[in-house]
Write a structure and sequence with these properties.
By secondary structure, the chain is an alpha+beta fold. It is built from three helices and four strands. It has helices at about 10-15, 35-40, 70-75, and strands at about 20-25, 30, 50-55, 60-65.
Length: about 80
Amino acid sequence: MVTRVLPESPAAIAGLARGDIILGVGGEAVGRQSEFYQRLWSSGEAGSSVILHVLHKRTVKQLTVRSMDRMQFLRPWQA
């Protein structure tokens, strides 16, 4: 279950919302958080498009999220 979505993050841009339940990544079902991250990280390098299937308010939706390097997103300045 999604507990938080950072503003302007790839998840927010794709439409993922707090309370959504992630059912699958790239067409493969996930049942645990560890499975989610394994599938996400194996879906390609940063910048890849990742298909998520999510349960959003009783409706299953397919969202395309463009992955990115987490440290680039969280870093507020350029070195």
